[in-house]
């Protein structure tokens, strides 16, 4: 297991860090007649192919009371089709050593395939079957719900997870980002096969989809084998849905008592959407504050100087719609108060004083210089391209990124720190042995 | 960072099977590595493995020391991992915590990990910046400054790390207890991160002696994979690392377990939502051909949703929401073959255990069908190919093989897997996967103590504790 709390850049931040792109392989982008957006990046160094398909059907679209529906629908794609049972599908995938996965995130659902070149036809056929003719058998849906319920219960033993769920719930105030993607123990029993089918029929149409293909595949193959199947998928109507942004804007403290040795702390508040023009200045600011691994101020003060935590990090979590800003840390119960107060000190400091020239330069050098590592495997490349398209960052995004980051000034860092950090209106979540933490 | 390589139990919890970790990483499966990798031993004994990979203008630069928790002594557990953390505390030329800052300023990422068998440091960065990694790694191989103040603070960080990983995780705690029971002689008895009491008792002198003994060219291994030219890189490495004196080859032989003569069974009783079950059978590592048979067995049991454990425990019997089989092929000393399961709420652990036993018995009694065996081999081979996609993993695999035995054995992996027969599986299952040879660990989940709010229930009271 790789412990990367210190580098906890949310998925979207990965995109944030492009630069001059000597290494960016060419990408073909096409919009098919049925409006499916197709992106292809050939990489013939290894005999396999990776597919990543995004459907604009993430958990933000869950109907009230049916939290978890988007995720269950995505999972349901793998549970049987008009031609094959779930067991037949799994047997066939395993026999090829292929993997087909589906899940939902906040903004979108995702169907991914990795398959050896020699099995491309069969693998892609299963991929398309799952996508276009799932049957969502009642029995399989029930099993999936039962399993998810068990996982939700089991996650109660992970204090970080408990804290995060509580934070989202409090911050987003019942708005579409408030609930866990998986659903809750209250909502899951309410999910039915009919609801899944309805959700699928509403959103799973080519005009709501981005497909990215990376790997050992050529233009001819694409044209003769894949395109006919993709193009035969009929367009459908996508219901319009409005995202109502809602945030808790007052200071609030939530304490959850557990028989554990560490206080798991989240300090945070509202954040921004990915399209916010200040996104790049925020990326640089956050790198200096708590996003930049061992170089960040939070790590320096809390871990390096005082040994109070193994991991401490801050991040903005921008989605299609405004997300959160969070500082996460774990420290022994008895140090909770001290660590929290150090977090506030650092947030206030970056709002008060200009960052140093050296800090600014270091942040820029890392963010720009590490760019080629954002897409150095097939899966990372597929994810990168999917997100550029989903968040509408522009096809020239990789070329422009270095200038987006490079043009950020110390004054801008100060300005965005003052505008987007709100230490006086933080939500504070503490999951700890409250007695030991002295916060009872 | 300064992260810890978790043992296979914890790895299971991270939803990555060992199988995948290993085989994801095997490079150039078909071509044969012997022709692709160059091995050079410098005059001071430092072994250097170079693999050119020009897919992207990047490199991974890795230094592996042949020292892990297996090299520790009773009462000093966690010393290897502690030293890993201290390796970032600087030298005469580089200030404390400067190392990572310099790498990041060069657009790179760096980190380190400790296992039972090794301590490894790596930098992933643009190929044109490789000299930065060479200079920094060379410097800390010979010139580490171990200061009391840094040590005291970093020891607190490591204790926080242990709380995070083990103390507050019922499953990780169970895994630690299982290993402490299964291994009585081998140093695999204790956790990589060390017992909390031992960490608290480590001293700067311990670290200095350990550094001197194990951080020598002759005990190190350098692996570079990426976009470079061998003939240009090697002289740079020789110049940077060649001047250190060889050092003495440390004593590496460790006592091995004596055969187990009856099942061991432990309970961990603590607050947890759900119980869990894990079983560990003593098995050989890759020095014995049976280990490859065990790779195939683990695949038949738990790779993919059509695998036996998933079909039986999760689908047919509906006893668990997850079940896994796992082993450490590349363990330097023999380790364990694990079976584990997460019971569904309301199910009895004893029924889950019975279901696992039935799957083992089935392996012993019936030959695996031809197609099922072919499926397992296909899965392992496909994972092989997928694993070539990451330079980091290529380097990591070369080094793991070398530490365990020899990097050249990577070329034996697929042929050995292909050779496994249905009879081999029956024979090996009968030989190793027997109750007398195993330790069973059960997490008995206790409800929260009285007087505390129900799980998940916030206290609601507002307070500002800044």
CATH superfamily of the largest domain in chain B: Metalloenzyme, LuxS/M16 peptidase-like
Residue fraction in strands of chain A: 15-25%
Task: Report the biggest beta sheet of chain B as strand number plus sense, adding barrel if it closes.
Answer: 7 strands, mixed
Query: What structural class is derived from the secondary structure elements of chain A?
Result: alpha+beta
| Mean of residue pLDDT values of chain A | 94
- Gross morphology of chain B: globular
Rg for CA atoms of chain A = 23 Å
CATH-defined superfamily of the largest domain in chain A: Metalloenzyme, LuxS/M16 peptidase-like
Radius of gyration of chain B: 23 Å
Taken as a percent bin, the fraction of beta residues of chain B is 15-25%
Element-level helix/strand string of chain B: EHHEEEHHEEHHHHHEHEEHHEEHHHHHE
Low-confidence stretches of chain A are 1-21
Secondary structure layout plus pairing:
The complex is a heterodimer of chains A (440) and B (466).
Chain A: H1 11-16, E1 28-31, E2 37-42, E3 48-55, H2 69-76, H3 86-96, E4 99-104, E5 109-116, H4 120-132, H5 138-154, H6 159-172, H7 193-203, E6 209-215, H8 219-231, E7 252-257, E8 262-270, H9 279-291, H10 297-304, E9 312-317, E10 324-332, H11 336-352, H12 357-369, H13 378-390, H14 397-406, H15 410-420, E11 427-432, H16 434-437
Parallel strand pairs in A: 2-6, 7-11
Antiparallel strand pairs in A: 1-2, 3-5, 3-6, 4-5, 8-10, 8-11, 9-10
Helix pairs in contact in A: 2-7, 4-8, 9-12, 9-15, 10-11, 11-15
Chain B: E1 3-4, H1 8-13, H2 18-23, E2 37-41, E3 47-52, E4 58-65, H3 79-86, H4 98-105, E5 109-114, E6 119-126, H5 130-142, H6 148-167, H7 170-182, H8 196-201, H9 204-214, E7 220-226, H10 230-241, E8 264-271, E9 276-283, H11 290-302, H12 308-316, E10 320-327, E11 335-343, H13 349-365, H14 370-387, H15 391-404, H16 410-419, H17 422-432, E12 438-446
Parallel strand pairs in B: 1-5, 3-7, 8-12
Antiparallel strand pairs in B: 2-3, 4-6, 4-7, 5-6, 9-11, 9-12, 10-11
Helix pairs in contact in B: 3-6, 3-9, 5-10, 11-14, 11-17, 12-13, 13-17
């Amino acid at each position: 297991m790789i412990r990367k709390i210190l580098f906890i850049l949310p998925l979207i931040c990965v995109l944030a860090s492009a630069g001059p792109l000597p290494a960016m392989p060419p990408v073909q982008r096409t919009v098919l007649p049925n409006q499916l957006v197709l992106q292809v990046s050939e990489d013939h160094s290894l005999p396999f192919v990776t597919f990543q398909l995004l459907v604009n059907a993430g958990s933000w679209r869950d109907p009230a009371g049916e939290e978890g529906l988007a995720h269950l629908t995505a999972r349901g794609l793998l549970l049987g089709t008009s031609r094959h049972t779930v067991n037949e599908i799994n047997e066939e995938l395993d026999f090829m050593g292929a993997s087909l996965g589906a899940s939902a995130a906040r903004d979108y659902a995702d169907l991914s395939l990795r398959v050896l070149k020699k099995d491309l036809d069969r693998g892609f056929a299963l991929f398309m079957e799952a996508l276009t003719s799932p049957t969502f058998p009642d029995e399989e849906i029930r099993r999936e719900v039962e399993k998810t319920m068990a996982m939700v219960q089991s996650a109660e033993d992970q204090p970080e997870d408990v804290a995060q769920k509580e934070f989202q719930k409090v911050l987003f105030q019942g708005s579409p980002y408030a609930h866990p993607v998986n659903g809750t123990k209250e909502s899951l029993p309410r999910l039915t096969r009919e609801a899944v089918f309805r959700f699928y029929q509403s959103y799973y149409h080519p005009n709501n989809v981005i497909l990215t293909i990376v790997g050992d595949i050529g233009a001819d193959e694409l044209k003769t084998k894949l395109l006919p199947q993709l193009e035969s998928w009929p367009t459908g109507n996508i219901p319009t849905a409005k995202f109502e942004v809602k945030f808790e804007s007052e200071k609030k403290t939530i304490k959850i008592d557990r028989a554990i040795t560490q206080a798991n702390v989240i300090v945070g508040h509202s954040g921004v959407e990915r399209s916010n023009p200040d996104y790049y200045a925020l990326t640089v600011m956050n790198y200096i504050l708590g996003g930049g691994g061992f170089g960040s101020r939070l790590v320096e003060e809390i871990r390096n100087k005082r040994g109070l935590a193994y991991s401490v990090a801050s991040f903005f979590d921008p989605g299609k719609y405004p997300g959160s800003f969070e500082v996460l840390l774990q420290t022994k119960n008895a140090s909770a108060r001290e660590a929290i107060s150090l977090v506030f000190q650092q947030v206030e400091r970056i709002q008060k004083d200009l960052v140093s020239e050296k800090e600014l330069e270091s942040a820029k050098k890392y963010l720009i210089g590490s760019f080629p590592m954002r897409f150095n495997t097939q899966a990372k490349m597929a994810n990168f391209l999917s997100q550029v398209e989903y968040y509408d960052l522009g096809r020239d995004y990789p070329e422009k990124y270095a200038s987006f980051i490079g043009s950020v000034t110390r004054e801008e860092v100060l300005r965005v720190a003052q505008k987007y950090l709100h230490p006086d209106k933080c939500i504070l979540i503490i999951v700890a042995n409250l007695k030991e933490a002295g916060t009872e | 960072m300064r992260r810890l390589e978790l043992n296979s139990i914890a790895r299971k919890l991270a939803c990555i099977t060992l199988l995948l970790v290993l085989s994801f990483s095997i490079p150039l499966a078909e071509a044969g590595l012997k022709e692709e990798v160059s091995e050079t031993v410098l005059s001071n004994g430092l072994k250097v493995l170079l693999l050119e990979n020009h897919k992207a203008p990047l490199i991974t630069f890795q230094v592996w020391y042949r020292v892990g928790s297996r090299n520790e002594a009773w009462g000093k557990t966690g010393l290897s991992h502690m030293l890993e953390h201290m390796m970032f505390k600087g030298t005469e030329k580089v200030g404390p915590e400067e190392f990572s800052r310099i790498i990041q300023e060069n657009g790179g990422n760096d980190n380190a990990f400790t296992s039972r068998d090794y301590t490894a440091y790596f930098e992933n960065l643009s190929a044109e910046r490789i000299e930065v990694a060479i200079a920094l790694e060379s410097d800390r191989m010979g010139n580490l400054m171990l200061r009391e103040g840094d040590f005291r603070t970093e020891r607190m960080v490591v204790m926080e790390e242990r709380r995070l990983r083990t103390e507050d995780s019922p499953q990780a705690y169970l895994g630690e207890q299982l290993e402490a029971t299964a291994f009585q002689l081998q140093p695999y008895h204790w956790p990589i991160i060390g017992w909390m009491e031992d960490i608290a008792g480590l001293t700067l002198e311990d670290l200095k002696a350990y550094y001197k003994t194990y951080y020598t060219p002759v005990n190190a291994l350098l692996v570079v994979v990426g976009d470079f030219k061998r003939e240009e890189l090697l002289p740079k490495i020789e110049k940077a690392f060649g001047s250190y004196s060889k050092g003495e080859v440390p004593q590496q032989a460790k006592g091995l377990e004596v055969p187990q003569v009856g099942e061991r069974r432990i309970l961990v009783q603590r607050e947890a939502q759900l119980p869990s079950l894990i079983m560990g059978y003593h098995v050989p590592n890759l020095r014995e051909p049976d280990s490859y048979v065990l790779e195939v067995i683990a695949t038949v049991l738990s790779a993919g949703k059509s695998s036996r454990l998933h079909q039986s425990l999760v689908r047919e019997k509906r006893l668990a929401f997850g079940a896994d089989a796992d082993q450490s092929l590349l363990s330097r000393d023999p380790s364990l073959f694990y079976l584990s399961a997460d019971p569904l709420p309301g199910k009895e652990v004893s029924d889950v255990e019975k279901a696992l036993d039935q799957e083992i018995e089935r392996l012993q009694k019936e030959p695996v069908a031809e197609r099922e065996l072919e499926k397992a081999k296909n899965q392992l081979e496909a994972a092989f190919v997928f694993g070539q996609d990451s330079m980091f993993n290529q380097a990591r695999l070369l080094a793991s093989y070398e530490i365990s035995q020899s990097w050249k054995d990577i070329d034996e992996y697929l042929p050995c897997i292909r050779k496994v027969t249905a009879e081999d599986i029956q024979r090996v299952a009968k030989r190793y996967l027997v109750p007398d040879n195993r330790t069973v660990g059960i997490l008995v989940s206790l409800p929260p103590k009285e007087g505390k709010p129900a799980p998940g229930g916030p206290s609601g009271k507002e307070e500002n504790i800044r």
